[in-house]
Every structure is written in structure tokens, then in C-alpha cells.
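User: Teach me something about this protein's shape.
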Amino acid sequence: MVSKPTGSINTVLFDWDGTLFDSATAGLAAFQKTFDEIGAAFTLEFYEANYAPNWYTMYQALNIPEDRWRATDELWLQHYGEQPPRLVEGALETVVELGRRGYRLGIVTSGTELRVSKEIHAVGLASAFEVLVTNESTVNKKPHPEGLEHAMRLLGVARESCSYVGDSAQDIEMGRNARVLTVAVPSGYPTSRQLAEANPHIRINTISDLLLHMTPLEF
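Assistant: First, the predicted structure itself:
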């Protein structure tokens, strides 16, 4: 872990899946049902070895033709939607408290806008985030910095005042590529095992621990 001061930070951008939203279990079940229906050779071992926030890399590894990716996405969304929405423990309180402390908040995710927007509303956080950057918002996917750079432009904030909180090495790499403060928090996704190797500026054990680093802003 590399130390970096948080005193200049006034904006916190979050990854969604795994970081704030507890989607790991429901997501895996949806993948299993989806790939079984389309006849792809998906196993738990494959998932553990190949899962990435940009899951089109899994589609490629499973030799799913690109012209079938959209239909595969829609099938996954159908099965994923069968599960009730649930935040990571402590996420609601953390987001609300950060807002109370004066931080500007946003989401930068690989998820689709329809699905993530629906989930944000379902868990009562619709008014918490000023910006939502999703899969449809960018051409280049994680770990390319385009998503974070787009969010910062929309907010009109400098990278020096911005942090990104994520649960995968790709999240941390994207944050470093965008030259913002990176915060790593583990989740139920296999990618969390590589967090330490990604060398984030800050590592926390739970999302609630973020409040230990983001003290109230002075106005």
C-alpha cells in the first residue's frame, strides 16, 4: 500500500458491483443460468479464474461470438433480476454519512445503465450520487481511465480532489491510470484476491472503514 494524503479530496467515486452493491452471489447464479441456456462451457473453476468487471472478457474466453453479446447480456439481466437488491453491509450508512460530511459522490461502473440505475433507486440512494457513468457511457472499458475521466468532466472536478473506491485490481488500475486516489475494499468477487498486488493508495477491510479516511470537509 502506498500512502497518499486525503486532505485534498472532496469527491468520492465508487465502483458499484461488489463495492457498494452486494451482487456477487446473485451475479454468479445469473451467469450459471445464462451460460447453461446458451450452451457455453461455464464452470465455477472458470469463473474463479476468468471473472473481470468487464465480463466481455469472459464472453471472449468462452468463445461467444460478439454478435451474441447483447442477447447474452439481456439473458443475464433477466436471471439477475430474479434476485432481491441488496447493498453491502454498511454501504448505505457510509454513503449517507459521506454526503453529510460534504463530499460529492458518484458511480463509475461497468454495469448497464438500466440495471444499475434501477438498483440505486431500489436501495434508496437515488439522491446520493451526482453522476452515474455506466457501460454505455464509454468506449474504452476498465482499466482504461475513460470512465473516471468522464465522471470528473461531468462534475467539473480536478483529479487531485478525486478518489475512486473499488473491489478489483482493474478498479485500482483504472484509478491509477486516471491519477486519482485509489481505495481498495474486498468483496465476494474472485477479483478481490488481486487487490494487494494492484498497490492501491489505501486498503480498507469494509466499506464502513472509508469513513476513517474521509473526514468532514471544512467550508
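Now, about its shape. The mean pLDDT is 93. Strands lie at 11-14, 104-108, 131-133, 162-166, 181-184, 202-203. If you'd like, I can walk through any region in more detail.
User: That's plenty for now, thanks!
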